[in-house]
Specification:
The complex is a heterodimer of chains A (628) and B (100). With 628 residues, chain A is mostly helical. Classes of the chains: A mainly alpha (628), B mainly alpha (100).
C-alpha cells in the first residue's frame, strides 16, 4: 500500500508525460490529462487515509514495506524501503491532501495553457519525489526524493522557459540547492562511516543509546542542517525562493510554500535523535531560524509584488519552524509546518485567483478595492491572513503561540532574545500580511480602466479549493499535532523559573496579531496617505528593504563574479586554451615540423639512397664487429 | 690461406666492386649490371660455404637466387627502357621526381 501511494503519482507522470496528447487529440486529451493528473493524487490521498487507519489500528507500530534492495555493499543492503509512522503519516497526509487540492485548483488556473499536459506531468513527478522523500526509511531514499523534488521544482519554476528571466530563476534555485546538498551528502557520508547504516530510525536509536556512537552529533547536525538551509530557504541560501515565484502560482503554493520547502524541517524533526544530542547544532538551527524569520519579514514589508510578499513570508515562517526545532520542540515545528501548509497554500492560491482576475497583474500598487469584485477570494484570503497573523482561534495562532512559548521556556536553549526577536517578527508578519490584504482588496481602487473592466471571480474549481483551504486554516489548529507526535517526538521540558509565563505569552501573541492588524489599517486604510508620508520619511530604509538588503548583489560580487573571473582566466584561458588546446596543437605542430625536416632526406636521387644504404651497411657491420 | 678464405675474399671483392659501381656510376644500365655483380658476390660466398660444409643446400639456394635474379632483371630492363624512352637519357639523376 505504501508503495502504491508513492507510485501512483509516478504513474500519472508517465501517462501524462509520455502519452496524453499523443494518444488522444484535444479536447479529449485535456480531459484525460485532468483525470489522470488529479485522479491519481486523490487516490494516493485516499490510500494514505487507509494507511493511517491501519497505523492507528495497529497501535502506532510503524508500518514498513520493502520495494527492493537497491545495492548491497559488503553485506550492508541499501533497500528502497518505505516507513510509515506518526511523523510520516502527518507529512504524507499534508503532501497528498494539500497536493490534491492544488492539483484540482490547477485545472482552472492552467486552463488553455498550451503545455497543460506537461504541467500536470511535472506536478505529478514532484508529488512522487516528495512522497519518496517523506516515506523513505533510509536517508538515501530521502536524498533521492530530496534531489527529485529539486528537479521538479527547477522544471516548474522554469515552466514558461521561453522567458529567459524565468528560466534563470529555475537555474538559480537548482544551483543554490546544490550548495546545500553538498553539506547534506557530507553528513550522510559521516553517518554511514560511523554507523554503517543510513536507516533513520536506526541512526536515531544509535544516538539515543548509551554510550552513543563515536562521532560528533554537532558535526553531523550542522552538515545536515546545511542541506536544510538550501532546501528550506534559510540564511544564507534563501535567495532562490523569492525568485522561484517565476513559476505558475499553484506551483508556488504546492512546492514553494506547503511541501517541498518544509522538507528541511521534516528532516530535522526526523533526525531529532541527533539534534537532541547536539546542543551546538540545535542552537545554530534556532538562531539561523529566528534571524531568517526576522530578516525575511523586514523585506516582506517593503515588497510590492503580491507573490514576492508571500515568498518572503514563507521564508520567514520556515524560520519560525526551525526556531521551534532548534529549541527541541520538534512536534511544534511540524505543527507549524502543518498549519502553514493550509494558510500559505490558501494565500498563494488566493493570490493566483487575484492574478487571474487582474489578467496577469502582480503589482499591488495597481490593485485595491477588489473585495467586492471577487468576494470569495477576498474572504478566503482574509481568513488565511488572519491565520498567519496568529489571531485566535485560527490555525496559525496555536502553532505560533507554541513556538513563542518554547522559544522562551524550553530547557533546550529557550532564551529571552530568541523570543524577543520572534515576537517582533510575529508583529511584522501580522503587519505586512494585513498591508497586503489592504492594498489588494480594500482601500481605494488603483486599477487602470482596462484591468478594471476584466476583473472576474475565478471558476468553481478554484474558489472551491480556496474555501476548503480557508476552512482548514480556520479549524486546523484544533488538531494538536505536537500531542499526536509526542510519543515519538517528546516535547522539551520547561524551565522551572519560566513555567508561569505561558498565559502572558498567549496574550502577547494575540496582542501582536491585533497590533499588526491595527497598524496596517492605520497606515494603509483609506488612501494610504500615512503610509506614503512615512515611506518618504524613511526613504533610505525603504530602498534597502525594497532592494532586499542587496543580498543578491552581494553574492554576485563576492561569489558570482570571482567565480566567473576564475572560470574565464584560470579554467578557460589557462586550463582549456593553454593546457588542453595547447597540448593538442603542440603535438600536431611537432609532427608537422618533424615531417618537414625528415622530408628533406628524400632527395629523389638514387645515388644518395644507395649511399645511405652503404652507410647503414657499414654501421651494421661496425656494430656487429663490436658485439659479436 | 685455404680455398674457402680465398673464395670469400673474392666474393667480398665482387660485392664491393658492385656496390662502388651502384654508388658511383650514373648510367642506369651500368648500375643494374653492378647490382648483378653484388648478387654474384653473394652467390659465390654461398657456394664457398656449401663446399666447406660439404652439403648441397647452399648450392641449391644459389640456383633459387639465379631464378629470382632473372625474374628481377626481366622486370628492371623494361622499366629502364621505358624511362629512357620518356626522357631520352639513362642518367639516374634525371629521375628525381619523388623529392621530399
Amino acid at each position: 500500500m505504501l508503495t502504491a501511494i508513492a507510485l501512483l503519482p509516478l504513474a500519472g507522470f508517465l501517462l501524462n508525460g509520455l502519452f496524453a496528447t499523443r494518444l488522444f487529440p484535444n479536447p479529449r486529451g485535456t480531459r484525460f490529462v485532468t483525470l489522470v493528473g488529479c485522479g491519481l493524487p486523490i487516490l494516493a490521498f485516499l490510500l494514505t487515509l487507509d494507511a493511517f487507519a491501519e497505523l492507528r489500528a495497529g497501535g502506532y507500530v510503524p508500518l514498513s514495506e520493502t520495494l527492493y534492495t537497491w545495492i548491497s555493499i559488503g553485506g550492508a543492503p541499501f533497500a528502497i524501503e518505505f516507513w510509515f509512522d506518526r511523523l510520516t503519516a502527518v507529512m504524507v497526509l499534508i503532501v497528498t491532501g494539500v497536493g490534491s487540492l492544488i492539483h484540482v485548483y490547477s485545472v482552472g488556473y492552467m486552463k488553455g495553457d498550451e503545455s497543460y499536459a506537461r504541467y500536470f506531468a511535472y506536478l505529478n513527478l514532484f508529488l512522487f519525489f516528495m512522497l519518496l522523500l517523506v516515506l523513505g526509511r533510509s536517508l538515501l531514499v530521502l536524498f533521492v526524493g530530496w534531489e527529485g523534488v529539486g528537479l521538479a521544482s527547477y522544471l516548474l519554476i522554469g515552466f514558461w522557459f521561453a522567458d529567459p528571466e524565468k528560466a534563470a530563476a529555475g537555474k538559480k534555485a537548482f544551483i543554490v540547492n546544490r550548495i546545500g546538498d553538498a553539506g547534506f551528502l557530507l553528513g550522510m557520508f559521516v553517518l554511514y562511516t560511523a554507523l554503517g547504516t543510513l536507516d533513520m530510525d536506526r541512526i536515531n536509536a544509535a544516538f539515543m543509546a548509551s554510550p552513543g556512537p563515536a562521532i560528533s552529533a554537532t558535526l553531523v547536525g550542522i552538515l545536515l542542517f546545511i542541506g536544510a538551509t538550501g532546501k528550506s530557504a534559510q540564511i544564507p541560501l534563501y535567495v532562490w525562493l523569492p525568485d522561484a515565484m517565476a513559476g505558475p502560482t499553484p506551483v508556488s503554493a504546492l512546492i514553494h510554500a506547503a511541501t517541498m520547502v518544509t522538507a528541511g524541517v521534516y528532516m530535522v524533526a526526523r533526525m531529532s535523535g541527533i539534534y537532541v544530542h547536539a546542543e551546538g547544532a540545535s542552537q545554530l538551527v534556532a538562531w539561523v531560524g529566528v534571524l531568517t524569520a526576522f530578516f525575511a519579514a523586514t523585506i516582506a514589508i517593503a515588497q510590492n509584488d503580491i507573490k514576492k510578499v508571500l515568498a518572503y513570508s514563507t521564508v520567514s515562517q520556515l524560520g519560525f519552524m526551525f526556531l521551534a526545532a532548534g529549541v527541541g520542540a520538534y512536534g511544534v515545528a511540524v505543527f507549524h509546518l502543518y498549519t502553514h501548509a493550509f494558510f500559505k497554500a490558501c494565500l498563494f492560491l488566493g493570490a493566483g485567483s487575484v492574478i487571474h482576475a487582474m489578467s496577469g497583474e502582480q503589482d499591488i500598487r495597481k490593485m485595491g478595492a477588489l473585495a467586492k469584485r471577487i468576494p470569495v477570494t477576498f474572504w478566503t484570503f482574509a481568513i488565511a491572513t488572519a491565520a498567519i497573523a496568529g489571531l485566535p482561534p485560527l490555525a496559525g495562532f496555536f502553532s505560533k503561540d507554541e513556538i513563542l512559548w518554547y522559544a522562551y521556556a524550553s530547557e533546550r536553549g529557550g532564551s529571552f532574545w530568541l523570543v524577543a526577536i520572534a515576537a517582533l517578527t510575529a508583529l511584522m508578519t501580522a503587519f505586512y500580511m494585513f498591508r497586503l490584504l489592504w492594498l489588494t482588496f480594500l482601500g481605494e481602487s488603483r486599477l487602470d480602466a482596462h484591468a478594471a473592466a476584466h476583473v472576474h471571480e475565478s471558476p468553481f474549481s478554484m474558489t472551491g479549493v480556496l474555501v476548503a483551504l480557508a476552512i482548514l486554516s480556520a479549524i486546523g489548529g484544533f488538531l494538536s499535532i505536537p500531542h499526536v507526535l509526542e510519543p515519538m517526538l517528546p516535547l522539551p521540558g520547561i524551565l522551572a523559573s519560566r513555567s508561569g509565563a505561558h498565559l502572558p505569552i498567549v496574550v502577547l501573541s494575540v496582542a501582536l496579531g491585533l497590533a499588526g492588524l491595527l497598524g496596517a489599517w492605520w497606515m494603509f486604510g483609506g488612501k494610504a496617505e500615512r503610509a506614503k508620508a512615512f515611506g518618504e520619511k524613511v526613504a533610505g530604509v525603504r530602498r534597502v528593504l525594497e532592494g532586499k538588503y542587496f543580498v543578491d548583489e552581494l553574492y554576485d560580487l563576492v561569489i558570482g563574479r570571482p567565480l566567473l573571473w576564475i572560470s574565464e582566466n584560470v579554467f578557460l584561458k589557462i586550463g582549456d586554451r593553454a593546457l588542453i588546446d595547447g597540448t593538442l596543437n603542440g603535438l600536431a605542430a611537432l609532427a608537422q615540423r618533424t615531417a618537414a625536416a625528415m622530408g628533406r632526406l628524400q632527395t629523389g636521387h638514387l645515388h644518395f639512397y644507395a649511399l645511405l644504404a652503404l652507410a647503414g651497411l657499414l654501421g651494421a657491420l661496425a656494430w656487429g664487429w663490436r658485439h659479436v | 690461406m685455404d680455398k674457402t678464405h680465398a673464395l670469400l675474399y673474392l666474393a667480398l671483392a665482387l660485392f664491393a666492386l658492385g656496390l662502388c659501381g651502384v654508388i658511383i656510376r650514373r648510367n642506369l644500365l651500368v648500375m643494374l649490371m653492378s647490382m648483378e655483380l653484388m648478387l654474384n658476390g653473394v652467390n659465390l660466398s654461398l657456394v664457398a660455404f656449401a663446399d666447406r660444409m660439404g652439403s648441397a643446400e647452399g648450392a641449391v639456394l644459389v640456383f633459387l637466387i639465379f631464378v629470382v635474379a632473372a625474374a628481377e632483371i626481366a622486370i628492371a630492363i623494361p622499366i629502364v627502357l621505358l624511362l629512357a624512352k620518356s626522357r631520352r637519357t639513362l642518367d639516374a639523376d634525371a629521375f628525381a621526381d619523388l623529392r621530399g
